[in-house]
Here is the input.
Amino acid sequence: MSVPRSAYDLTGRKALVTGGARGLGAGMAEALARAGAAVVIGDVLEDAGRATADSLKQSGATAAFVPLDVTDETSWESAVAATIGELGGLDILVNNAGIEISGLVVDLDPVDVRRMLEVNVLGVALGVKHAFRAMRPGGPAGGGGAIVNIASVAATIPFPGIAGYSATKSAVDRLTRVAALESGKLGYGVRVNCVYPGLVPTEMGARLARDMVSLGLWPSAEAAVGDVIGLTPLGRLGEVSDMADAVVFLASDGARFVTGAGLPVDGGMGM
Here is the structure.
């Protein structure tokens, strides 16, 4: 008697992870690979991206790197084509690439806001566009699939010093839901969901804590982090693996009837 595969087994799936060179993106790529997926890392950080892909290959996974500037349509076209050529298909896209630039509303810098809009909103929108074109019937991959967009707990709660970032991550939430509806109505066979990560002590998370001090909002980075933990019912910061495992779930058949959803992975902070 054969043992049935787990609904969370991604063996045979082909994934592209944006911003996968380091931090959350690297953790997500690693988790997808552990679940059995072949993974391509897409990033502007070529050396780090190649190193992450090499590390995955050394662990026995099928992995590769492609240069990808998520704000550039031509770059997306090349990256998706390269992924399909390298892996023989594409059925998972993780739109993880994003940036956070702290600042008070009273000091809002249009240059910073435009940059976050380009990366966090336009970058995700272009990713959904080109994943749809590849995964829908008649596309070069053509077998449907799953898109997981990375939003933030900042899309669900007010937090000082990150108005621009919060706005862009709220946009990711709305974009996710509209894309899911269009995919369903047009028969693309692609589920579209998003994750709201809580604060994780990655390089970006540590910089955010320091920024809160620079803006005069907290006396120290430790105090800022302590207050975040105090707002979190589970009483700790998130870990990369917490976020990565949620992505694996949404990409898997375990979430086969889940689309247009936002999954908080924030220890209860945003409830």
In short: The chain has eight helices and seven strands. The mean pLDDT is 95. Residues 110-135 form the longest helix (26 residues). The longest strand covers residues 190-197.
